[in-house]
Design brief:
Oligomer: single chain
Domain HTH lacI-type: 14-68
Radius of gyration: 24 Å
Pfam families: LacI, Peripla_BP_3
Keywords: DNA-binding, Transcription, Transcription regulation
Shape: elongated
CATH architecture of the largest domain: 3-Layer(aba) Sandwich
Strand content: 5-15%
Structural class: alpha/beta
Largest sheet: 6 strands, mixed
Distance between the termini: 70 Å
Helix content: 40-55%
Number of domains: 2
Number of helices: 14
CATH class of the largest domain: Alpha Beta
Organism: Streptomyces leeuwenhoekii
Order of helices and strands: HHHHEHHEHEHEEHEHEHEHEHEHEE
Protein name: LacI family transcriptional regulator
CATH topology of the largest domain: Rossmann fold
Length: 351
């Protein structure tokens, strides 16, 4: 049997190398196209697809996976309790982006929670058995051993935000520093002077960068940050309530609050209202994420929009590239791609 006259010689199947030679590209590039990696130019993809059609190349998925020790599955690992995953829109938006991008490939997506010690032990055993081709790590805290475990096992991995400025794994994040600056600059422009900040978990690098942006915006305006107006939070609604109560007790005259997430802002709003503070007349309020919560709050919440859906899509793109390039970790160069996507301040009535 032949396709376009190319599958001959006793019915022998064309090889991946023959497709690469016909397309004028490397074997790895053909693999990326076949595996649906988005990080291939349109011209290259067209050349490979034309070569596949001309030669009649048909990928043998099962054989390819077995020969390459592949599972055709990737895991989205969330080192948080399930309750937080379903309570915060950030995670569902990330999952939507990941799923949409992965739907264009033959890869399966596994969602794995690892919020407790028992779950982490089970996950370590699962990963050691190489039951997935790659891992997406979401909400990684400083000191989390999971990234190092993946490196030891030589499992391709991408994380949603670096653990530090010296991150060694590929990562995709939004501009946390710039987003925080824009929020505080907006409040300053509106005449607010006692601007408080409820942080996220400070063992998360993105939360640290938001604090940096808050401080620098005040400093540039000639108003050094008052440490009494910075209260630790944890990205949760309850954390927002606790932090807001502490801030009001410490400085009843504050006139604005920048919260590290929309969920946190929702908790802060509840405490402000219980204390008789009107939003935005007495206290302006700004959140972060621009989730559905921001649009449905009363009054609607000004929030820093980060492209969470796009972050998920870019993470899958990087991971598919890592999977296609399965050289041992020690033979790779030290550089990893760190993608930082822009943020946008969406102004609503809360500020």
């Amino acid at each position: 049997m032949a396709v376009n006259g190319e599958w001959s010689r006793g019915g022998r199947r064309p090889t991946l190398e023959e497709v690469a030679a016909r397309a004028g590209v490397g074997r790895g590039t053909v693999s990326r196209v076949i595996n649906g990696s988005p990080r291939v130019s349109d011209a290259t993809r067209a050349a490979v697809e034309a070569a596949v059609a001309e030669l009649g190349y048909v990928p043998n998925t099962a054989a390819r996976a077995l020969a390459a020790n592949r599972t055709d599955a990737v895991a989205l690992v969330v080192p948080e309790p399930e309750t937080r995953f379903f309570a915060e829109p950030y995670f569902s938006d990330m999952l939507r982006g990941v799923g949409a991008e992965l739907s264009e490939t033959e890869m399966q997506l596994l969602l794995i929670f690892a919020g407790g010690a028992r779950e982490r032990r089970r996950l370590a055993q699962y990963l050691a058995a190489h039951r997935v081709d790659g891992v997406l790590l979401v909400s990684v805290h400083a000191g989390d051993p999971l990234p190092d475990l993946l490196a030891q096992l030589e499992i391709p991995a991408v994380i949603s935000g670096p653990r530090s400025a010296a991150e060694s794994l590929p990562s995709v994040d939004s501009d946390n520093y710039g987003g925080a600056r824009s929020a505080v600059e907006h409040l300053l422009a509106a005449g607010r002077r006692r601007i408080a900040h409820i942080t996220g978990r400070l063992d998360v690098y993105g939360a640290q960068r938001r604090v940096d942006g808050y401080r620098e915006a005040l400093l540039d305006a000639g108003a050094e940050a008052d440490e009494r107006l910075i209260e630790p939070g944890d990205f949760t609604e309850e954390g927002g309530r606790r932090a807001m109560a502490a801030l009001l007790e410490r400085d009843p005259g504050l006139d604005a609050v920048f919260a590290a997430s929309d969920v946190t802002a929702a908790g802060a709003r509840q405490v402000l209202r219980e204390a008789g503070r009107r939003i935005p007349d007495d206290v302006a309020l700004v959140g972060y994420d621009d989730s559905a919560i921001a649009r449905h709050m009363d009054p609607p919440l000004t929030s820093v929009r980060q492209p969470i859906d796009e972050m998920g899509r870019r993470m899958i793109g990087l991971l598919l590239d890592e999977i296609a390039d399965r050289r041992p970790a020690l033979s790779r160069g030290p550089e990893r791609q760190q993608v930082v996507l822009p943020t946008e301040l969406v102004v609503r009535r809360s500020s």
